[in-house]
Amino acid sequence: MGPDSVALLCGARLATRSADTQFPFRQDSDFHYLTGFDHPHAVAVLRTDGGPAFTLYVEPRQRDAETWTGHRPGVEGAVRDYGADEAHPIEELSGHVPGLIERARRLLFILGRDAALDARLTETLEQMRLRSRTGVVPASEIADPRAILHEMRLFKEPAEIEIMRRAAAITLAAHRATAPGARAGRFEYELEAMLEYHFRKRGASGPAYGTIVGGGANATVLHYVSNRARLRDGDLVLIDAGCELEGYASDVTRSYPVGGRFEGPGAAIYDIVLEAQEASIAAAKPGATLEDVHTAAVRRLTEGMVSLGLLAGEVDGLVESGAYKAYYMHRTSHWLGLDVHDVGAYTCEGRPRALEPGMVFTVEPGLYVRMDEEKADPRLHGIGVRIEDNLLVTADGHENLTAAIAKRPRDVEAWVVGS
Ligand code: GLY
Ligand code: MN
Ligand code: MN
């Protein structure tokens, strides 16, 4: 933060789902990262101006409210259990704002999150300016704290990596338990329910993002989440599902053969995507970039598209022209952490940034042939495959956190038939 700075950070509020029901509470990831305080309507104040280093403003204990919505740590708990130097009821924040910022040269604050707090802060600064003849000096800068925070979040500490390993283990167990559900006649939502049952049963809070279970042509819809169709023999079912554990996401995709045997054009496409995924994983090491990882996947996928007759011409030219995007239209990687598409800059001075130990990201090439793809051989219509793992960059390469989730065809088949 630098000296003489004061940061004010807002936690998440409860969000209305419909009428008087609310979505389950999920703390803002930055707020969770800094405080671990996972209760609605809190504000954290961090100071380097000589005031208390860490103050929490929270909903106070209130017997009646807690009868309805459960335990609150309150101001006592905020100090006792969350390491705050001071805590106050959230209603007192507005009145405290002038005192909190009177000595700050620099404020760290996200404008646009809380209109009332934005207004309180700007009006306080204006009042300070009006008193400048008496020696009052308002902060000269309001900076966005996310620049600092998101760089911190990009590099996972050992305790975070340990949680992400455990999240990966739960996601493995859920995929393994669900694979035998890849049987004709089952509905996609049955597999979704099975995955989420195993996430919860093993201590995760639930899925880290909307679970995708897409049988047959539904696998070619990248963000398919309706999960309502019946599975059919000989189809592939794409499952993109990962749990959230203690706030951290895992993000895993596997494509399972309905009935337990990879065959025909689906098997051929699967082999190409698996080779592309292995090539891109091999490129992941310190000093390389996510662009290198993507390029490795694109190259192998494009070769595969030519071998399948989906594209014609020289591979170099097809990569150069972007022709492969007809069948591979998304990027290969994103950062992974407290958010599934985690924070952190992807470029540095306009260039792809070098991978460094502690970064975690996905590798998720795919190949998708839509039903209405006129240029494709009709036998390939409605086949979509994606294979996604979660990689941690280490000092000498990478650790694949999700390597034990079956992906070689024979291992996948064995999971489906339950052996
Ligand atoms: N499941 C979201 C993604 O793979 O990016
Ligand atoms: Mn995914
Ligand atoms: Mn992903």
* Number of distinct beta strands: 21
Structural class: alpha+beta
Residue windows where pLDDT falls under 50 for at least 5 positions: none
Report the end-to-end length measured between terminal Cα atoms.
54 Å
Estimate percent helicity: 25-40%
Count of domain modules: 2
Annotated CATH homologous superfamily of the largest domain: Creatinase/methionine aminopeptidase superfamily
Overall 3D shape: elongated
- Beta-strand proportion: 15-25%
Helical stretch tally? 12
| Backbone CA Rg | 25 Å
The main pleated sheet reads as: 6 strands, mixed
Q: Would you kindly provide a written description of the structure presented here, covering whatever features stand out?
A:
This protein is an alpha+beta fold. The protein folds into two domains: 5-151, Creatinase/prolidase N-terminal domain (Creatine Amidinohydrolase, Chain A, domain 1), CATH 3.40.350.10; 155-417, Creatinase/methionine aminopeptidase superfamily (Creatine Amidinohydrolase, Alpha-Beta Complex). It is 34% helix and 19% strand. It has helices at 29-35, 63-69, 74-82, 93-101, 115-130, 146-154, 158-178, 188-201, 264-282, 290-307, 315-321, 409-416; strands at 5-10, 16-18, 21-22, 43-47, 54-58, 86-89, 106-109, 141-143, 206-207, 212-215, 236-240, 243-245, 248-249, 253-257, 347-348, 351-352, 360-363, 366-369, 383-386, 389-394, 397-400. The strands form seven sheets. Strands 6-5-4-1-7-8 form a six-stranded mixed beta sheet, with helices on both faces. A hairpin with a 2-residue loop joins strand 12 and strand 13 (248-249). The protein binds glycine (GLY) and manganese (II) ion (2 copies). One manganese (II) ion binds next to loops.
